[in-house]
Amino acid sequence: MQLIVASLGAGTHLGLTMVLDANLKTYYCSSSTGVGFKVLLHNPLETPKMADFALLMAPGIEARVIIRPKISDASFTIRGIDIKKRMCYFTNEKDLQFYRTYTELNCKLECQANYTLSLCGCVPFYLPKNRFKKICSKKQEACSNVAKEVMETPNQNGSNCNCLPACFELQYDASVTFGKLANSFKIKEQLIKNENPDYFMDNMAVLHFYFTESQFTRNTKTNTGGLLGLFLGFGALSVVEIIYYLSLRICCTAIRKHKKNKRKTKKNVVENNNDAKLAYPFAR
């Protein structure tokens, strides 16, 4: 199910409130050892990896989920810079087989699907594939798990996918606070399907999703800072450091030169005085 809701502003009263029913009586299997719900905030252009990155929400709680979008954008002025230096792809610079829009995660999932197919002869159901590819069964789960571990381990096959970040990225950070539901919590009877109040406390959770700000700023990647600052070694802070170093060096050089001249002048005065004392008797 895909639910599209637009927020009217900041705060819980302008956010999204959901009442979820775990229905524990019908539990059959789960990817985790607990019961409840998995919640993940993700880019709508990406396939969510619920088993790996989702937040767990237990029944019988009321939770508040603060959403903080992170928007990273790149200036078109860096398009002329080599990809190996700017370390990001624009949308039309790298095509994917199963996704219309390039993102780093989509690229990695597609690469993992191809690697799993070559290693196990099948593709897990949650990875992108066409209708001609075989879906991995329970017998091939061990092989697909090995392929997944190899792909996600740094400096192994995953590093050969060349999946750089996108020059435009949209991500979401979530902060969660929660408390136990009170018996005084009022809910419409049709939502609990004529069950007793204990059913609500044992099976349901109330989640509030909201923003704390009504406007968000972009982090722009340019050719003089931001992302390129990591690879070109130059940014606004570097300019300050250079000015500081040059001014400090000039001042130190001037001070040393002044002290040296002062010592030289003092030495000449002392030598002249000594010569005068020695020459005086003969002058008499």
From TrEMBL:
InterPro entries: ENaC
One family name in Pfam for this protein: ASC
Keyword Transmembrane helix: yes
Membrane disposition: Multi-pass membrane protein
Residues annotated as transmembrane: 227-255
GO molecular function (one): ligand-gated sodium channel activity
Assigned keywords, A-Z: Ion channel, Ion transport, Membrane, Sodium, Sodium channel, Sodium transport, Transmembrane, Transmembrane helix, Transport
GO cellular component: plasma membrane
Subcellular locations according to the entry: Membrane
Main location: membrane
Family assignment from sequence similarity: Belongs to the amiloride-sensitive sodium channel (TC 1.A.6) family.
Classification via PANTHER family: AMILORIDE-SENSITIVE SODIUM CHANNEL-RELATED, PICKPOCKET 12-RELATED
The name this protein goes by in its record: Pickpocket protein 28
Species for this entry: Photinus pyralis (Common eastern firefly)
